[in-house]
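2024-03-11 09:14:02 INFO worker-7 job=invfold-0412 stage=load source=structure_tokens
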């Protein structure tokens, strides 16, 4: 870690000369200061380590058509039980509305009319991955998941690794072909030939990343808020969620527009601000913030803002890092 004072420090077990544990365990005796440098602009992270999990030899998808948002509570409650009981691993369950599903494969001008009706854009689906190190365990977990999800789904689909493709090119092994970038082009007149480059092609795209309880009613509420803003501002909004653990979902809400269209930037930013305010009012605060506005994160309680400001001035006395991109005491985001 590098500070603007010129100081450098190692965190975790890496601060010791004998650092055999640095790569395998991240929590030595305290104080633990690593978290101070996450999304804070307190210093510059120079290096880090990520623990990679081995690919499991047995894995497959269960795709679920859920239907309108009214069906989310029953489905999400069942899915939460599967994650809680470790039939489905955390980060192996994703839910998407119809807007995200259609935008991931085509653009508005080329999408079938039946895929762009309000009902279709608001219908939800899920992709659940079942994985295990042993075939018998995989078969058992898969059967349990199917039995639980079938009554709360309009339909189920079963997919395994594509035997015609090399294993490293399977989505079950984390491979991505980059096609998801298509969703950035939803409002553009056409897709370009060759590699996609949203910045070059004038695509407007911005994320909001709320956390919400792993509850069907909470996801249904997020769906209602996003559909309302999309209709009021005429900006295309896509929604999804990921099971981060048995208690919480990471929300993925994105807006896509054509930056070449007059007034589109302004409409999209107003829509983004309205969504951010609605999520904060609902208590769905973000696990990461995006440009352009940090103050929409919501007000904090007690002395949080004052303490954070003292830390900032101690670690970055010249306030060099992140000018204009971090909240200060007195801002709407500070208490």
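2024-03-11 09:14:09 INFO worker-7 stage=emit residues=335
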């Amino acid at each position: 870690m590098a500070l603007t004072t010129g100081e450098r420090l190692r965190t975790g077990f890496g601060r010791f000369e004998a650092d055999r544990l640095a790569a395998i365990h991240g929590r030595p005796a305290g104080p633990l200061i690593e978290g101070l440098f996450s999304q804070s602009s307190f210093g510059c992270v120079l290096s880090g380590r990520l623990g990679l999990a081995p690919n499991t030899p047995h894995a497959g998808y269960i795709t679920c058509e859920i239907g309108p948002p009214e069906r989310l509570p029953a489905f999400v409650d069942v899915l939460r039980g599967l994650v809680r009981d470790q039939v489905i691993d955390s980060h192996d369950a994703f839910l998407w509305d119809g807007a995200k599903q259609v935008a991931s494969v085509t653009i508005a001008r080329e999408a079938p009319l039946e895929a762009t009706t309000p009902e279709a854009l608001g219908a939800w689906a899920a992709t659940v991955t079942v994985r295990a190190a042993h075939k018998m365990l995989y078969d058992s977990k898969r059967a349990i998941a199917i039995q639980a999800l079938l009554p709360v789904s309009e339909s189920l689909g079963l997919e395994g690794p594509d035997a015609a493709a090399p294993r490293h090119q399977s989505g079950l092994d984390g491979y991505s072909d980059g096609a998801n970038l298509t969703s950035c082009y939803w409002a553009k007149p056409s897709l370009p030939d060759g590699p996609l480059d949203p910045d070059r092609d004038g695509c407007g795209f911005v994320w909001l990343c709320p956390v919400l309880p792993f509850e069907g009613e909470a996801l249904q509420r997020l769906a209602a808020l996003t559909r309302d803003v999309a209709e009021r501002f005429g900006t295309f909004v896509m929604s999804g969620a990921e099971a981060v653990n048995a208690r919480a979902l990471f929300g993925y809400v994105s807006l896509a527009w054509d930056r070449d269209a007059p007034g589109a930037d302004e409409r999209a930013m107003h829509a983004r601000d309205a969504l951010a305010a609605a999520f904060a009012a609902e208590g769905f605060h973000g696990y990461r913030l995006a440009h352009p506005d940090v103050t929409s994160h919501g007000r904090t309680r007690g002395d949080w803002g004052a303490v954070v400001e003292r830390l900032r001035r101690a670690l970055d006395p010249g306030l060099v890092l992140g000018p204009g991109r971090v909240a200060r005491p007195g801002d709407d985001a500070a208490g």
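2024-03-11 09:14:09 INFO worker-7 stage=report msg="The radius of gyration is 22 Å."
2024-03-11 09:14:10 INFO worker-7 job finished
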